[in-house]
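Field: COMPLEX_INPUT
Field: COMPONENT_COUNT = four
Field: RESIDUE_TOTAL = 382
Field: MODE = joint
Values follow.
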Amino acid sequence: MQRDAGRTRKRILEAATEEFAALGIAGARVNRIAEEAGCNKAMLYAYYGNKDQLFDAVFTAYVDAYLEEVGFDADDLPSYAGRVFDYFEEHPGHLRLATWYRLERPQGARLEAVLAVNADRLAALERAQADGVIPADFSPVELLSLIQSIATSWSTMNPEYGSAVPADRAHRRRTVVDAVERLLTSRDAGA
Amino acid sequence: MQRDAGRTRKRILEAATEEFAALGIAGARVNRIAEEAGCNKAMLYAYYGNKDQLFDAVFTAYVDAYLEEVGFDADDLPSYAGRVFDYFEEHPGHLRLATWYRLERPQGARLEAVLAVNADRLAALERAQADGVIPADFSPVELLSLIQSIATSWSTMNPEYGSAVPADRAHRRRTVVDAVERLLTSRDAGA
DNA sequence: GTCTACCAACCAACTGGTCAGTTGATTTCT
DNA sequence: AGAAATCAACTGACCAGTTGGTTGGTAGAC
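Field: COMPLEX_OUTPUT
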């Protein structure tokens, strides 16, 4: 058993990601994380401060990975929605993480990285609309909001639907991309 | 101070609704609920069994109120979406409750009431499509999933958007209804 | 090469406080 | 008198965070 601070840090972060994704901040147990990571609880406090800061580290790591992998393309929003869908299909825990964050984090503390990315995206959408590349029926923030919701709609459904939800991932993906395409189809001004 | 079992039950349920909506099952504190309800913790156990069953009572009461108030109309989905939007604008805690339920409840235990309502709605949509009242581009379950997501999209956004989200409730509502209308506009079969 | 002093990595065991749930007695109404 | 409603005080388990000490790698003296 070699000693390796970097490896231990990583193992803690992985174990914490799993625990927080499953149970949230209030439900997570520091003891369990340490046990799962195969190290002593004290290491966790040495490396990450406390439970809350550990959640921060987990959440920031997820956001970085998400932004890197999904990217953004104001000119092709349907395929952006498809990539969002793909990401959360492959990392269902990350969507839970994002939801816990929204529910359990006090209103004050926002993530700089996300704020900056959002501003960028809103600006890019505005430009694309000014250039006529995408229709301007919805404002940039409306578009982002709707697309995000649609892309994750299957994962955020109440569990009671259960068997009615199609098991075929490709089929569910097509639904998402299709719906976003419809949002972007210009309609006549008349009621 | 009169004694009144019914009133005490109700006060506990109200206090519990607030506490669970704010903090979820793991984060809620039984002591706080009793204090807020202005009664002893033992009453809570006498009337509702334990913490989990108390959450069940809270959640069931919310579902009943929701189903009653929102209703469903397969022939006019945009206005259904508008009513869903309205409901959660007026009871933001209830959307949080639904989210906690999805995150914290073990997969096994579903609510009969919701299962039955879902089945009804799927059947109603199927009929409406067969009658040609609404387009059949999306299947019933796809429609329900998309509409639910769109109606709650503003409330489920990451908090980092903050000031970019329009404060005007009527405006946000129009976005929702508009988006659902677009889903229902038939398109040509060609790619 | 190997000895040694040093420090980072690591941990078992503890602490103080908090939590869900219980008990046995008291009050109030009929 | 008796039943239902109420509660102060208790219990045992658990939990986040700490402490004081041990272990293992390694840099430099010789």
